[in-house]
Design brief:
Layout lengths: L4 E7 L9 H9 L15 H22 L6 H18 L4 E7 L6 H10 L4 E6 L6 H16 L2 H4 L2 E4 L7 H17 L5 E7 L8 H18 L5 E7 L12 H10 L4 E6 L4 H17 L4 E4 L7 H14 L4 E2 L4 H7 L3 H21 L1 H11 L2
Membrane topology: Peripheral membrane protein
Catalytic activity: heme b + 2 H(+) = protoporphyrin IX + Fe(2+)
Pathway: Porphyrin-containing compound metabolism; protoheme biosynthesis; protoheme from protoporphyrin-IX: step 1/1
Length: 372
Amino acid sequence: MEEKIGVLLLNLGGPERLKDVQPFLYNLFADPDIIRLPGLFKLLQRPLAKLISVLRAPKSKEGYAAIGGGSPLRKITGEQANALRMALKAMNVNVSVYVGMRYWYPFTEEAIEQIKLDRIKKLVVLPLYPQFSISTTGSSIRVLQHIFREDVYLSRLPVSAILSWYQRQGYICSMADLIKEELERFEKARRGLFAYRMVEDAGDPYKDQMEECVYLIMQELKSKGIGNDHTLAYQSRVGPVQWLKPYTDEVLVELGQKGVKSLLVVPISEHIETLEEIDMEYKHLALESGIKNWGRVPALGCTSSFITDLADAVVEALPSAKALSASREAAEETNYEPVRYLVKLFFCSILAIVLLLLRPKVVFAFRNRLLR
């Protein structure tokens, strides 16, 4: 009898309708791996998430409206899941591929329920983030640990998690090929800008992996006879915390001041930051800053070489599958009691009201920073 193998693709998720934007933002900012509050301030996580989501929703809705009214991420990830299943089938590896989103439908919990119904005997978890960050892959794995810890069947299921794959030769070559093709159509480009999703500057490996990834891509391009200058920048900061630098908007102004006239942007994936922030906001800023020729490399999507490399990664991961267990610390961090939470919410609300009454200037300064 053939072993039933599952592959779980994890991704961020995104609102598909404008009315979904505010609850999506709430889910995002309620995640303690996205906005990390120290000590007792953790009690404010959910009230703060509510505040940020309400304040940010109008501006975010404008962005989603500009790209058709919703995020394309669910559609793209579904297409990648189907392409991956077909690639594995061509390798004589029959699998069921599931999609689990962290902050919007289909949620990870829904995918896990289907995996249980299908009685999968071995599972490969593949986050669609090339580099590891606590706020992306780490957050998604934490959710899985919590779910698996509470379920007898899942706690015994052999699982292999691919935590990062930015250094895989297939991925590097696929990125280099896309850049090369776009450069050939965009002959005037003299500099490339790698624009990647921003994470909080809190010492996780994302920055180092990102820099290594860009280095490997540039080395691959050099082997193809391409030696353009390049710059790495981070986008999509929000709130009063320290994010990774340099910021993309500041880099664009600086490049314009340095006399750069042609720029080709390389995003990590197709999401709201690509379709609205890069294609519209940053393009407008670049043109204002004196950069006359603007181009963007398309995301990998279902590029054949990329999907084949993901399939290879899945096959390589299968032999190492073992029961996924959460550490005691992770279990404690993800668990909360409803009554205890309501008590916390009550006192945090009182604290927020007191702060608003006694220090309104501080509150409104914080609000203005969120809306930047």
